[in-house]
């Protein structure tokens, strides 16, 4: 089966995979202890056979017996303990470490039983263990995991194993004969590394790819009957949004009037109409629409050019002294560079001068995003059914490798996040999430722009594809071709 990825994976290691290409491929190679079911509503076992809370702060995992790593070694509780100890060590910088900050202790009870004790009740105690587990026998003596050979020669327990990794060319995965849920029915998955979205689209059109996403403009204007004869189309709201994030460390963006003015100068619906036709919706805030955390009372700001100009004037900007800034984004997304151009045009209407910088994905992350060398970034985040505001909105995560790279600090928000972390009462948690949703949208650290639909084309010769709320991939080991 042939797929495409837009960039080289940086590290095929589940605890270090922060870019989408690495995460996607690592997902075929590794398992967590638990995972979501196909409807993303219930947590079910993965490497864990059973799991239960002994009390509010003690979680027991009974692991599956007979699971083996790709090199034939047996999986056991030692691997779980090792993964946890690596995540909390100072040897690595991983944004995923924050999920384990409430863990007091992880203990091996026996070869297939793990006991996790928390310092206090934690609302995401189970989700944390969706993290891919690492092989202790291969990595226990590795001095530097950040630059380890393992990151390009990974060994997991997943349904596929890495056969070939040719940077900027091809990544091949083979079905793992001894996979604990049964050998996948498709023998080989090939990822072609193709940075150019148009090339990816043309390869899909000519059936060189079996699966690919289709941009709305291409879907509406460039596909004909012969394509739909060969491909099934699956469309659903994506679990991700695009935003414009301000570097709040910079003096010019510390003024809330400036951020509000930029927000009011933008016509979000126009962006959606131009770029997506009817295949997207305006994003109103940081949590997944339809989920418990979503606040339906918060509406997207309506464009108000007069008010935007007045706010800029109050902040000391006018025609003779215009507000200027740069939008940095990546060409890994076909749409975002166009979105940046529309923003540039819309902001010109209130006298704001915008320059654009479009970069290759890895360079964008390593030279702009993580070193915090930007005015604004046009980027996206995934949306989880159970959000963890700590990772993005808490002051603690304004640190090297942290996801709060815009430098958002709000003491009230920090306090609410801290209180919410130990809430296990879903009703109270829902109420506090909705309040956080409003605080973030009022503060404008990000301008929330749009949530695209995902349009996925799957060749009709791939059988047993079952779409669900979580997308099409939940049962891929049963697919046949």
Task: Characterise this structure.
- The chain is built from 15 helices and 18 strands.
- It has 481 residues and is of the alpha+beta class.
- The chain has two domains: 1-210 and 461-481, D-Maltodextrin-Binding Protein, domain 2, CATH 3.40.190.10; 240-453, Roll (Dipeptide-binding Protein, domain 3), CATH 3.10.105.
- The strands form four sheets. Strands 11, 12, 13, 14, 15, 16, 17 and 18 form an eight-stranded mixed sheet that branches. Strands 1-10-9-8 form a four-stranded mixed sheet, with helices on one face. A four-stranded antiparallel sheet has the order 4-5-7-6, with helices on one face.
- Helix 8 (256-265) runs antiparallel to helix 10.
- The termini are close together.
- The model has no long low-confidence stretch (mean pLDDT 94).
End-to-end distance = 8 Å
- Count of helices? 15
Largest sheet: 8 strands, mixed
Question: Under CATH, the topology of the largest domain is which?
Answer: D-Maltodextrin-Binding Protein, domain 2
**CATH-assigned homologous superfamily of the largest domain:** Periplasmic binding protein-like II
Structural class, from helix and strand content?
alpha+beta
For the record, the count of structural domains works out to: 2
Q: How large is the share of residues in beta strands?
A: 15-25%
Relative helix content: 25-40%
Instruction: Return residue spans where pLDDT drops below 50 for at least 5 consecutive residues.
Output: none
> If you average the pLDDT, what whole number results?
94
Number of strands: 18
For the CA atoms, what is the radius of gyration?
A: 23 Å
Shape: globular
CATH class of the largest domain: Alpha Beta
Which CATH-level-2 architecture of the largest domain? 3-Layer(aba) Sandwich
């Amino acid at each position: 089966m042939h797929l495409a990825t837009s960039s080289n994976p940086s590290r095929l290691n589940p605890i270090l995979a922060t870019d989408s290409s690495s995460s996607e491929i690592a997902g075929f190679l590794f398992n967590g202890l638990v995972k979501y079911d196909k409807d993303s509503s219930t947590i079910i076992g993965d490497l864990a056979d059973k799991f239960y809370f002994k009390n509010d702060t003690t979680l027991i995992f009974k692991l599956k017996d007979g699971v083996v790593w790709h090199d034939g070694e047996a999986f056991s509780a030692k691997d779980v303990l090792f993964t946890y100890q690596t995540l909390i060590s100072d040897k690595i910088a991983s944004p995923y470490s924050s999920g384990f900050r409430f863990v007091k202790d992880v203990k091996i009870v026996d070869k297939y039983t793990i006991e996790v004790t928390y310092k206090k009740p934690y609302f995401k105690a189970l989700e944390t263990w969706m993290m891919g587990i690492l092989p202790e026998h291969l990595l226990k003596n590795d001095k530097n995991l950040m630059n380890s050979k393992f990151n390009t020669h990974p060994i997991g327990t997943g349904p596929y194993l890495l056969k070939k990794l040719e940077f900027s060319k091809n990544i091949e995965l083979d079905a793992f004969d001894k996979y604990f849920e049964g050998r996948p029915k498709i023998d080989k998955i090939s990822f072609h590394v193709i940075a150019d979205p148009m090339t990816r689209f043309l390869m899909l059109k000519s059936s060189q790819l079996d699966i690919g996403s289709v941009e709305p403009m291409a879907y509406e204007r460039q596909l004909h009957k012969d394509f739909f004869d060969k491909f099934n189309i699956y469309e659903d709201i994506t679990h991700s949004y695009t935003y414009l994030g301000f570097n709040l460390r910079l003096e010019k963006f510390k003024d809330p009037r400036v951020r509000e003015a930029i927000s009011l100068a933008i016509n979000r619906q126009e962006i959606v109409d131009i770029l997506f036709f009817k295949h997207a919706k305006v994003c109103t805030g940081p949590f997944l629409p339809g989920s418990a955390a979503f606040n339906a009372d918060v509406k997207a700001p309506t464009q108000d050019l007069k008010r935007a100009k007045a706010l800029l004037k109050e902040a000391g900007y006018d025609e003779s002294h215009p507000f200027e800034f740069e939008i940095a984004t990546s060409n890994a997304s076909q749409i975002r560079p166009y979105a940046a151009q529309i923003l540039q045009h819309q902001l010109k209407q209130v006298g704001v001068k915008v320059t654009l910088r479009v970069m290759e994905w890895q360079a964008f992350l390593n030279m702009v995003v993580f070193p915090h060398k930007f005015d604004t970034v046009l980027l996206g985040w995934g949306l989880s059914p159970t959000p963890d505001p700590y990772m993005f909105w808490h002051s603690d995560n304004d640190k090297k490798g942290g996801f709060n790279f815009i430098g958002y600090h709000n003491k009230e928000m920090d306090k609410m996040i801290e209180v919410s972390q130990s809430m296990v009462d879903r009703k109270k948690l829902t109420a506090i999430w909705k309040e956080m949703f409003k605080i973030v949208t009022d503060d404008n650290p990000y301008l929330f722009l749009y949530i695209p639909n995902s349009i996925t084309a799957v060749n009709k010769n791939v059988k047993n594809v079952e779409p669900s709320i979580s997308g099409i991939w939940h049962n891929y080991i049963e697919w046949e071709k």
